[in-house]
């Protein structure tokens, strides 16, 4: 018990049981048929399933729109929170955390009820509003953390060299904050693609996202196809994460240079 590695054992067991094992099960089910034999039919089915392809395209569209909305509203909020001149109270930061203390499903149900009471028809507009409301904190805080820890001497040096405030922001602050932006994009974009509860409640099940297709297949005991769709999403998430990490590092370095 004197070794520090022993204290990591509970976390290792947790990771194996609730992370590694489910991923292995998804992989196994995705390459099997209903009889349990090896088959790539479930994976291949996705590429000629018009319903799944259409839903996936719609999910990407909604995810892009939601991510752009979160950047549009989240970056200015993060900038204000990180600026000591514009925000002198730590209470303001807590106010942005408060919604996250409430279960996301409860927030979604409350938002849907507000739209119903106001007579607003449920559709894509209400879906984007609800998603932006739910995921906005996940965009604000990565950007806020980067801006808050940023070395202020870079901006001061640019000002000493005669740069205008707009030039300081465009050539110094924005490039240095891009790692936070990319982290926020990852935390907003991917969950938006795979979510299903928000779209069900805020569109009255009129709009289906990719997560809904996976849920429907699992609920209908179509485990193999549901696992195949989940695996495809995992692969897309992994590739996107690697590509965006590289782009973020290059852009941040290139912007400063």
Q: How would you sum up this structure in a few lines?
A:
This protein is mainly alpha-helical and 257 residues long. 76% of the residues lie in helices and 0% in strands.
Which labels suit this protein?
mainly alpha, 257 residues, 0% strand
Itemize the secondary structure elements and their pairings.
Layout: H1 9-30, H2 41-45, H3 50-82, H4 91-97, H5 104-118, H6 124-149, H7 153-160, H8 165-194, H9 197-202, H10 210-219, H11 223-256
Helix pairs in contact: 1-11, 3-6, 3-8, 6-8, 7-8, 8-11, 10-11
Question: Mind explaining what this structure looks like?
Answer:
The chain has 257 residues and is mainly alpha-helical. 76% of the residues lie in helices and 0% in strands. The chain contains eleven helices and no strands. The chain has helices at residues 9-30, 41-45, 50-82, 91-97, 104-118, 124-149, 153-160, 165-194, 197-202, 210-219, 223-256. The longest helix has 34 residues, at 223-256. The termini are far apart. Mean pLDDT is 86; it is low at 251-257.
